[in-house]
Amino acid sequence: MTSDIAAILAIDGIATGAVYALVAIGTVLIFTVTRVIFIPFGDIAAFTALTLAALDAKRFPGTGALVVVLACLASLIEIISLLRAGEPRLLPRALLFYLVLPLAVVGAAWLVMRMDPPLAVRLVLALMLITPISPLLDRIVFRPIADGTVLLLLTVSVALHFALVGLGLLFFGPEGVRTEPLTSFSTEFAGVLISGQTMLIVIAALVFSGLLYLFFDFSLVGKSLRATAVNRTGSRLMGIRPARAGTIAYLLGSLMAGVSGILIAPVNTVFYDSGFLIGLKAFVGAIVGGMTSYPGAAIGAVGVGILESFASFESSALKDVIVFSLLIPILIWRSLASLHSEEEIEE
Amino acid sequence: MSEMFSMTDVTVCYDNVEAVRNVSLSVEEGQIVTVIGPNGAGKTTLLMAAIGLLASRGRMVFGGSDIGRMSVEDRVERRLCLVPEKRELFSDMSVADNLLLGSYSLRDRSGVQKTLDEVYDRFPRLKERQRQAAGTLSGGERQMLALGRALMAKPKLLMLDEPSLGLAPLIVREIFRTIASLRDLGVSILLVEQNARAALETADYGYVLETGEIVQSGPAKDLIHDPRLITAYLGGH
């Protein structure tokens, strides 16, 4: 391997890693706030790409129907649980949030679609359509078992992923898509050609991580999310509702997954089931950070991207094997270095 | 004085055992009421039920409304606050952030800075350490932070679970002095303590809880001279 090739592979790896980093940060966000390892995150990314491709082809995406179905289910569950709890006065607010708002988003997207909007608007539409999915899934699937063990939540999360892949086939069909590049710009740096798309991916990853950092460090809502992650009982005693914190975490997380889906769509062909590998590789990155550290997850995800890039050069067939083999030494190192749990018991 | 908080015939089951049985007590506005009793009598369980972390039977009224079926968060929004035995601080976060989160339930944010300044005046130590992570504080400082964080919510009734537990005698005295001074701010206090003498010296009224039931109650100044309590909890004279 010459240094030129190594440089190209490294840049390619950083770009792929940046996409994984966005998903990994979202995974950590949701895990720390809700204790759910949200495997379907990759699916959310893939669905965003498919949504954008449908919008580009002037078809109304299946995401719309998916959101409507989920909104109806979530509202039904919310109505039943509120009536059971003897709290009918909370119904209007719940219906506004779980039914009216998601339907309004779908309706707005449908109307705007007919005006043949430019690319920038289509990007916003794709993100708008995708963001309600995770909070709705949270309401339907995870809220009723919120107090379950991490293992139970993970098992359900895996099952949910398979359900979503099935729904993906139903709503998007079996064809793969590749969207038009967001930019045709390219530049040369130290003798290596860097495409505008690659730069865009890295910049987007940096900007979104930066925004998330600002949100966590400087806003009360961001701090309340961190508090929920650090100490659930303590945060409840401050009046912070874990369910609300969870919803915010899902909204933010799906926004990150959505952005990564948009970034990856022009580079890779995305199918209804492409999300699994994206989610799993981001998960490996998140584990490097111990599932709790955002910078750790981002660095881990970029590491996975670079490793994958070099691995695919050496042996394209074995690249996933190489990436996932990385998990074993990391898990051993993590379990040897986990002084954390003892501290928590003392607490 | 009007009634701030009352429990009537409250029973709390914990793992199928009745940890607290038919307990009735009340706290008047601006009063410090203490519940004393031995380890395992159900004191902590009582407070956990009062804040809503444990389900209970019976009637609970706070500020004129029935709170028995309300969620923890709804009770906190009505300014019923608990400083639990474990303090439950946000150990990875700074002292300043811990205090700020204490005010999370307040809709009106205009007075938050003023309250923060008041808390810092009361506990200058916290101001010195405002950028430090809560997990790095000493035991006494952690208790101050837990108290300060609760005060940020402008509580009407503050429930304190064993505030002196594990603290050096000098700091215990300081904590009790702070508790007494809170009464002057108009905060009602429900204080659960194993340190019966310090609690009764600070409180206006006291209840004695033994194996989940109230066995005795009366003005604190009477209880402190009660011969039975002296032998059982006050270590004789």
UniProtKB/TrEMBL annotation, chain A:
Location in or out of the cell: Cell membrane
Keyword Cell wall biogenesis/degradation: no
Sequence intervals crossing the membrane: 6-29, 36-55, 61-83, 95-113, 119-137, 149-172, 192-216, 248-271, 283-306
Keywords linked to the UniProt accession: Amino-acid transport, Cell membrane, Membrane, Transmembrane, Transmembrane helix, Transport
Highest rank taxon of the organism: Bacteria
Coiled coil: none
Topology class, membrane: Multi-pass membrane protein
CDD domains found in the cross-reference section: TM_PBP1_LivH_like
Family assignment from sequence similarity: Belongs to the binding-protein-dependent transport system permease family. LivHM subfamily.
The name this protein goes by in its record: Branched-chain amino acid ABC transporter permease
Organism: Bradyrhizobium iriomotense
From TrEMBL, chain B:
Similarity comment: Belongs to the ABC transporter superfamily.
Database matches in InterPro entries: AAA+_ATPase, ABC_transporter-like_ATP-bd, ABC_transporter-like_CS, BCAA_Transport_ATP-bd_LivF, P-loop_NTPase
Stored PROSITE patterns: ABC_TRANSPORTER_1, ABC_TRANSPORTER_2
Keywords assigned: Amino-acid transport, ATP-binding, Nucleotide-binding, Transport
Any matching Pfam family: ABC_tran
Single GO MF annotation: ATP binding
Role, per record: Involved in beta-(1-->2)glucan export. Transmembrane domains (TMD) form a pore in the inner membrane and the ATP-binding domain (NBD) is responsible for energy generation.
Protein name according to UniProt: ABC transporter ATP-binding protein
Domain ABC transporter: 5-236
